[in-house]
Design brief:
The chain is of the alpha/beta class. The protein is built from six helices and 13 strands. Helix 2 crosses helix 3 and helix 3 packs parallel to helix 4.
Amino acid sequence: MAKLYFYYSAMNAGKTTTLLQSAHNYHERGMRTLIYTPRLDDRFGEGVVASRIGLKADGRIFERDDDLLAMTRDDVAANGALNCVLVDEAQFLSKAQVWQLTEIVDALHIPVLAYGLRTDFRGELFEGSQYLLAWADSFTEIKTICHTGRKATMVVRVDEHGRAVTQGPQVQIGGNDRYVSVSRAEFKKITSGEGRIELKQAELPL
């Protein structure tokens, strides 16, 4: 039975690596997949899904107004049976698009694996993550660690001096130079102004 799976974590936990490994597993068995990736995340080139360890694959670009159910139906009509849909940076999905993913599962009977952040730099849910948590059939946390050694569950946005940024737009694309995964306790300390992040530490893979 097809299901909607949501794999979530803080930054730098290996979400994209896990997505690409899942796609590879399908391909090894002669099955076809479709990877969706948001247009706004073009750090590795438009339509390229890439991990920090060098794995990459081509993805189908989507924007917030796109109908993922219609796009998937069109793909099946043009290219034949589809065995899995994978979504990178799923936190950027709209509420409507998460509903469309449920329809890919329920109406087209294609499993959907969505990978994304749970919360933003303010500790608030992204729209896509909020509705994936509400409607997905299965949830899995991909774990990473804080520089304190504790489990990291939150994300801090930092400036060039390692100071926490607590205001600004929810979406600002960046990597290890702008975002650091920390524990909840460290998040409280840093965002209250009681602590800071050393950039040399932030740039280390987690």
